[in-house]
Every structure is written in C-alpha cells, then in structure tokens.
Design brief:
Elements (H helix, E strand, L loop, with lengths): L9 H9 E4 L4 E5 L2 E5 L3 H10 L10 E4 L16 H16 L3 E3 L9 H7 L8 E4 L13 E4 L2 H10 L1 E5 L2 E8 L8 H12 L7 E6 L1 H4 L3 H9 L8 E3 L4 H7 L8 H11 L12 E6 L6 E3 L7 E3 L13 H14 L14 E4 L7 H11 L8 E3 L4 H9 L2 H8 L2 E2 L20 E4 L14 E4 L2 H10 L10
Parallel strand pairs: 3-4, 3-6, 4-5, 6-7, 9-10, 9-12, 10-11, 15-16, 15-18, 16-17, 18-19
Antiparallel strand pairs: 1-2, 2-8, 13-14
C-alpha cells in the first residue's frame, strides 16, 4: 500500500467518496445516489416540500415503488380498504407531479422495493442509497452503503439530494467454511442475530466477509444484508465481486458499454484493505449452522429446529429474563417445549427477505408432490418474479399443494394490506420480524427459511426440513 494512505474498509471508501462537508460536531453532509420513495408514509415528505415551496431536486435519481399498501389478491379491483386506496392514489399523484419514475400498482415491474431495486439494476456497487424503510440494508449485498431514513430525512433528500449523518462504527462478521446441507442464508443470519443479539451491531455498519459469504448467491446475500437491521446495524454490506457484476450486467438501469466498463473498474477497488481496522470483529464457522426458527418475539429469539424453548430462569440478566418471559407468554409456549412439537395454523412465503425466485424454487422443491396440512400465502417479491415463477411452473406446485398464489407486495409481513393473522393464529413465516402484532393483532410469528416454511406447511408443525429429504 502507498505510504501515508490510511487503510480503509469498503464502508470508509464509500463514505469518503460521498462526503460533501464535515462539521465541527462530526456531522457529515453526504451526497445521495439513489432515493427510493414508497407508498407508505411518503406523503409526509411531499407535504413538507409543498409547505416550504420546494421541489424534488433530482427526480432522475429518485424512484417510487408501491409495495406496503398494495393488495396481493384481486388486484384488478384495487385495494379493498378505503384508507389504503387513498394512500396509493396520493402516492401516485405525488410521483406524477414530481416527474418521478414509479413502479406502481399497475406497472409490470411493480414489486417490493428491495426486490425491484436490484432487479432493475438501480442498486449498484459504491452507491449511497436511502429509503424510508429499515430494510434498505438489503441493497448492501451489491456493495452499496444503503440504509433506512425517517420522513423528515426523506424531505431533506428530496429537496437537496443530500443528507446529514454521523459516521457509524465499522464491524466485520466473517463466516468461513461451507454451510451444511439444507442450511440457507436465512438460517445463517438468524444464527448470527441469535449469537450477537438484537442490539449486537447497534451503531455499526456490518461488513459480511469470509469464504461462506463469498459462496452465497446474490439473492442469498440480499437475505443476509436485509436482516442486518434486526441486529441493530445501520447497514450491512458485502464487497462486490464477479457474482455481483454478473448479476447486474444487462439489467434495465445498469450502465451500458463504456460506462459499464468504467463502473466495474471502479467497483473492483471496493474492498476492505488488508490492514483496515474495524471497531469490532466477530467470526463464525459456517459448518456449525443448522436450520433455524424463532420461538419468541424478536429475531434474536432464534435457535436450531432441533432445540427447545429456552427457560427464562436460566438467564442471569434481569431485563433479558423479563423479555423472554413476556415473549413466551405472548407466543403461548412453555420452557422446555420441543420446537418441532409446536403446531402452526398457516404459513407465509414472501417479504423483502425471502420472496425472490431462488426462495420460491427452494420452497417448491419441498412442496412438489405433497399436500399441505395448513393453508398459506405465497407472495412473490415482484411482478417479474411472479412471471418468472409461473414460466417455471412453480405456481402450479404451490396451488396443487394447497397454498394461495398471490400478487407481489409486502403482504403478510406488514399486516397492513388485508393479509393479516387473527389473534392467536400461529404462522411459519419467511419474513424478517416476529414482533408482537407484526402480522396482525395477537398473531404469533415464527421466522424461518422458505424451505422450512414449506416443511411446516406439509406437517402442520415446525419441522426440520432435513426430515423430508
């Protein structure tokens, strides 16, 4: 390395290249490359713009996506809820008035924002990407610094294409070795969160590294980065490599020709220098990861499917013990209960975490030729993913197994668009959060991979997918 140049992490490099000015108090004004605007809550930002007589500074770098409130059933009839219809209509009007390209409810490219961005080639290495959704960390899988923002921050980005931020600390999570049979990226990230805790990466940008991470497909990397926020991280990021370039090449918004060559050349330097310092380092052995499920009301309440509901009395920390006791009460579980004895009422395959074509294929492989004991919803991550799945015949596998094949959207992950659990219902879900009421008031959520959710649908209980091979 050239003498006098400080070794930097990939995050350092992206931060430095986007810093406009740093104040004495440590706040830095960052230039924003890509701003995704959603149907959910974006009207606040546009009201603020209108109130102050401002316009969208860079509509060409802003993209609208309708995903939270869109119905996944009978879409031709529009959202059944009047409030949802109003939100979608106002969103589309704001997008039209600002001349923002929008993947709206009737657009053949519509989908969940964190599926659509990479799918369209909008999310690229080295970018700084923001969106008023916490799981914006997904886009870090492509070597971008991507994070969620609030509505007031969204107003600032719309008006200036910049954002004031205080630089987070750096953390590296290295995973070496190979994941065992039937173990997926969802199992890996749940195992990581279970180990470091729901606040284990608080205040940090997490770089995922190691041979196991490099061996993940791009869709699997998105699953890992997506749930970085569930460990408290500001963002998750993975250094771009040949898999990244192959994934982006040829997509609608990807650079073309000489611009593509220049883009790849730039991205090749986006790695952490050998001597770069991290504020915290954690190492994992991929071979030790098993198929995971959650038992409680936080993603950190994850354990191998071969395990049991933990005993809160064994927890020495009083606050954690109280949280475990509350979670067990809410979930209707008792300490020592085998996880594979827990019966479920339904399943959900979807969300920005696990609704891409690889996820649907994984679930379909388990379901093919079998019938489900419980009902469930399968909601693909985008209209293009849905079309792709139907071309492969995956929709027929889901339907013949007894599941509903829906349109794309956030669906039951959020429980604000008509796809909700009833109080007391227990769901095996591929989404990212199992908070109290997340999928509907009183609903009980167990997080897991698509293959594990499919296995649960077949048996009617939480099940080790390896038993169905």
């Amino acid at each position: 390395m050239t003498s006098g140049i400080r070794p930097r992490t990939i995050f350092d490099k992206i931060w430095d290249s986007h810093a406009v000015v740093t104040r004495d108090d440590g706040e830095t004004l960052l230039y924003v490359d890509r701003h995704y605007v959603l149907d959910a809550g974006s009207f606040h930002a546009f009201e603020n713009l209108q109130h102050h007589g401002r316009k969208v500074r860079r509509p060409d770098q802003t993209f609208g996506v309708a995903d939270h409130y869109v119905p996944t059933k009978d879409r031709h009839a529009g959202a059944p809820d009047p409030e949802a219809r109003s939100v979608i209509a106002l969103f589309e009007k704001n997008m039209r008035d600002a001349n923002i390209v929008t993947f709206g409810i009737g657009d053949p490219r519509q989908g969940i924002v964190h599926v659509v961005g990479p799918e369209q080639g909008l999310s690229q290495p080295g970018m700084l990407i923001v969106c008023a959704d916490s799981h914006t960390s997904t886009h870090g899988a492509l070597g971008a610094f991507a994070f969620g923002i609030g509505h007031s921050e969204g107003t600032h980005v719309l008006a200036t294409q910049t954002l004031w931020q205080r630089k987070p600390m750096g953390m590296r999570i290295s995973v070496d070795g190979s994941l065992p049979r039937a173990v997926t990226a969802k199992d890996l990230i749940l195992a990581i969160i279970a180990r470091i805790g729901a606040s284990g990466a608080s205040g940090h940008v997490v770089e995922y590294a190691g041979s196991a991470v490099r061996g993940l497909s791009m869709e699997q990397r998105m699953t890992v980065c997506n749930m970085s926020i569930e460990a408290g991280a500001k963002a998750g990021i993975i250094a771009p490599d040949e898999s990244t370039f192959e994934f982006i090449a040829g997509r609608p918004y990807a650079p073309k020709g000489a611009d593509w060559d220049e883009s790849v050349a730039y991205a090749r330097h986006l790695y952490s220098d050998p001597d770069a310092a991290f504020d915290r380092e954690v190492r994992f052995d991929a071979a030790l990861v098993e198929p995971m499920v959650t038992w409680g009301t936080s993603p950190e309440h994850a354990t191998p499917i071969t395990g049991m509901v933990p005993d809160p009395s064994a927890e020495s920390d009083a606050s954690r013990r109280a949280a475990m006791e509350r979670a067990a009460r809410y979930m209707g579980l008792r300490a020592g209960m085998r996880l594979d004895e827990i019966e479920i009422d339904c399943i959900f395959i979807g969300s920005c975490t696990n609704s891409r074509i690889e996820d649907l294929r994984a679930a379909a492989r388990v379901l093919q030729g079998r019938r489900c004991k419980v009902p469930g919803i399968v909601s693909p991550g985008s209209t293009l993913v849905k079309k792709h799945a139907e071309a492969e015949g995956l929709d027929r596998i889901f339907i013949e197994a007894g599941l509903e094949w829906r349109d794309s959207g956030c669906s039951m992950c959020m429980g604000i668009n008509g796809d909700v659990l009833s109080a007391g219902q227990r769901c095996a879900a591929t989404s990212n959060r199992n908070f109290e009421g997340r999928q509907g008031k009183g609903g009980r959520t167990h997080l897991m991979s698509p293959a594990m959710a499919a296995a649960a649908a077949i048996t009617g209980r939480l099940t080790d997918v390896r038993e169905l091979d």
